[in-house]
Amino acid sequence: MNIREKLKDKSRIVIKIGSSSLTHKDTGRLDLIKLEILVREISDLRNQGKEVVLVSSGAVMVGRNTLGLKERPENLTVKQACASVGQAKLMMIYQKLFSEYNQICSQVLMTKNTMLDNLNRINAKNTFLELLSLGVIPIVNENDTIATYEIDYLSVFGDNDTLSAVVASLIGADLLILLSDIDGLYTDDPHQNPDARFIEVVEHLDDHLMAMGKGSTGSNVGTGGMATKLSAAQVATSSGVDMVIANGDDFHVIHKIMQGKPYGTLFLEDKKDEFYVLNYLEHMV
């Protein structure tokens, strides 16, 4: 069986959407057509009997637009206020769209302490598993109103990339799909080097591959670049979770990935010690 073909059998999936994949490039406002497609794709996975967790960025961006702020705020308290307003509005939109497909979604906000505190971690895991058993689609974000890391560009969870990997590890997911504004992993920055080659499958993340992401940056909407995605791959694969980095320009790519078609870069699971993720988080800035 082709390596990609095995993705058809994945039953517990975490999907991460970056802010840049949710917005119109010219205005920075929500692309409601794309959002509707995203919700339909996830609802169809649920109809196939698969469990899905959505890790969605976008709270600060939505809050900024709701409050009429033209530029991304620099002041930390303004960012937190935007996150508070935007998270509520974003969830309202998700609730409305998912209800049209007879799906129930819920909100889960996490911080680094959610994972590092033993009781919090156990409670979070139990809550996720109960929600999934009830057929609910948990929608996850970092709690930006109290956690300053991500919105201050010193992210513990890195534009939700690492957060999605941590969630995948926590709930024992089969697959993590990271959708952003990049096609996957290249041997070099394809915008700078026309000879950069696309990497379809990564069997083992070594130091050379990790170094590829060091110089990359994210879009002006999100905060993460390739470095955070490779960190996410390190967490996910070390936890026994396969991961795909693909372009979120068209959310129909979700069912194409699940059908085993060659979209994005596939990182194969490479399970390590069960305490690897906790040790990783403890040593993050």
From TrEMBL:
<dbReference type="InterPro" id="IPR001048">
    <property type="entry name" value="Asp/Glu/Uridylate_kinase"/>
</dbReference>
<keyword id="KW-0547">Nucleotide-binding</keyword>
<comment type="similarity">
    <text>Belongs to the glutamate 5-kinase family.</text>
</comment>
<keyword id="KW-0067">ATP-binding</keyword>
<feature type="binding site">
    <location>
        <begin position="180"/>
        <end position="181"/>
    </location>
    <ligand>
        <name>ATP</name>
    </ligand>
</feature>
<keyword id="KW-0808">Transferase</keyword>
<keyword id="KW-0963">Cytoplasm</keyword>
<feature type="binding site">
    <location>
        <begin position="223"/>
        <end position="229"/>
    </location>
    <ligand>
        <name>ATP</name>
    </ligand>
</feature>
<keyword id="KW-0028">Amino-acid biosynthesis</keyword>
<dbReference type="InterPro" id="IPR005715">
    <property type="entry name" value="Glu_5kinase/COase_Synthase"/>
</dbReference>
<feature type="domain" description="Aspartate/glutamate/uridylate kinase">
    <location>
        <begin position="12"/>
        <end position="247"/>
    </location>
</feature>
<dbReference type="InterPro" id="IPR041739">
    <property type="entry name" value="G5K_ProB"/>
</dbReference>
<dbReference type="InterPro" id="IPR011529">
    <property type="entry name" value="Glu_5kinase"/>
</dbReference>
<feature type="binding site">
    <location>
        <position position="57"/>
    </location>
    <ligand>
        <name>substrate</name>
    </ligand>
</feature>
<protein>
    <recommendedName>
        <fullName>Glutamate 5-kinase</fullName>
        <ecNumber>2.7.2.11</ecNumber>
    </recommendedName>
</protein>
<dbReference type="GO" id="GO:0055129">
    <property type="term" value="P:L-proline biosynthetic process"/>
</dbReference>
<dbReference type="InterPro" id="IPR019797">
    <property type="entry name" value="Glutamate_5-kinase_CS"/>
</dbReference>
<comment type="function">
    <text>Catalyzes the transfer of a phosphate group to glutamate to form L-glutamate 5-phosphate.</text>
</comment>
<dbReference type="InterPro" id="IPR036393">
    <property type="entry name" value="AceGlu_kinase-like_sf"/>
</dbReference>
<dbReference type="GO" id="GO:0005524">
    <property type="term" value="F:ATP binding"/>
</dbReference>
<dbReference type="GO" id="GO:0004349">
    <property type="term" value="F:glutamate 5-kinase activity"/>
</dbReference>
<feature type="binding site">
    <location>
        <position position="144"/>
    </location>
    <ligand>
        <name>substrate</name>
    </ligand>
</feature>
<dbReference type="GO" id="GO:0005829">
    <property type="term" value="C:cytosol"/>
</dbReference>
<feature type="binding site">
    <location>
        <position position="160"/>
    </location>
    <ligand>
        <name>substrate</name>
    </ligand>
</feature>
<keyword id="KW-0641">Proline biosynthesis</keyword>
<comment type="pathway">
    <text>Amino-acid biosynthesis; L-proline biosynthesis; L-glutamate 5-semialdehyde from L-glutamate: step 1/2.</text>
</comment>
<dbReference type="Pfam" id="PF00696">
    <property type="entry name" value="AA_kinase"/>
</dbReference>
<keyword id="KW-0418">Kinase</keyword>
<feature type="binding site">
    <location>
        <position position="16"/>
    </location>
    <ligand>
        <name>ATP</name>
    </ligand>
</feature>
<dbReference type="InterPro" id="IPR001057">
    <property type="entry name" value="Glu/AcGlu_kinase"/>
</dbReference>
